[in-house]
Fold this sequence. Notes:
It contains 8 helices and 14 strands. The two termini are 34 Å apart. Helix 2 (18-35) packs across helix 5 (137-163) and helix 3 packs across helix 5 (137-163). The protein has an 8-stranded mixed beta sheet with strand order 1-2-11-8-14-5-4-3. With 334 residues, the protein is an alpha+beta fold. Residues 182, 184, 202, 207, 214, 216, 222, 268, 270, 289, 291 line the site of 2-oxoglutaric acid. 2-oxoglutaric acid binds at residues 182, 184, 202, 207, 214, 216, 222, 268, 270, 289, 291.
Amino acid sequence: MKMDLPTLDFSKYLRGTPSEKQQLGEALIKSFVKHGFVKLINHGIPEDIVRQYQASTKELFDLSLEAKREFENEKGPKPQRGWSSKGAEVTAKLRKKNIPVGSNGDELKDEREFFDAGPPSDKEFINKWPKAHLPDFQRTMEGCYKRLQAASLQILNAMEVGLKMPKDSLTERCNPSASEIRLNHYPEVDMKLLSEGKVKRTHAHTDFGIITLLFQDNVGGLELEDRSRPDTFVPVEPQRPDEPSALVVNISDTFERWSNGTIRAGVHRVDVPPSMKGLANGLCPPRYSSVFFFKAARETSVGPLPSFVTPDRPSIYKEMTALEYQRLKTEVLY
Ligand SMILES: O=C(O)CCC(=O)C(=O)O
Ligand SMILES: [Fe+2]
């Protein structure tokens, strides 16, 4: 079953007339309310940055296991830093619905390895880099980080326009930056393992931040929940090799909380490419994605914003800081 995920031309916001900006902002919010997702073309991130981001993703995971262990993430209730091996976290545990009765969910593994890095200047949760093996990687990632943070702020400004909120009333909650880069590698895998049902490339979940920005490769497999038919998932078209990069953006938990549940986080997962659905043998090709979790400043509240709380719609989420929320969520993963 296909779903038409809106593709919006973000240059209409970046370089448009006031009325084009307004239209884009409203279309953005409409898509987020309906799907929790949108695709943006002409997103303003230069193509050479996107290519560097994707090439560095592949280069990192091509390192030997032994090399990757030198910058491995330490498990715990805290922002993740460095490399996480296959099965290190159990993403499925982020969504209670995933867990069968009588199980704690530990058998619901993800067939993926990933890498996380926070703000370049982070003194609290220090980044881990593959310095000895890829000397330029850190500089490239820091460049990508800055450009993706800037793009995220522009998208959030466009959301303010769509929601008729004062300019910067949302973006002012994002300084200093606590966003994170996430690189994913889904290794080539036997279809038999994926067809058994317990192991997925990534089990269904929502992300923790405000919005998530994602560049995919040409393989396919990202799926989002169809809200008109809960618990069914539909594919997001993969990137076409001959077209400029499309940025996939989804609403994440912090925005759902800020909006007091009026704009819900997009539930998503990674499955086999659409052409391989239903096959129980053969090999599923490797896949890579380059992601940016745009987050609120650590001390900022992730409780509902006053403009979303009314006598008819009292607050449905607890007050806590963005860092407390991240600790709570990462604690569940291990
Ligand atoms: O690889 C993808 O397309 C999705 C990755 C994802 O959902 C995540 O890293 O949170
Ligand atoms: Fe995700």
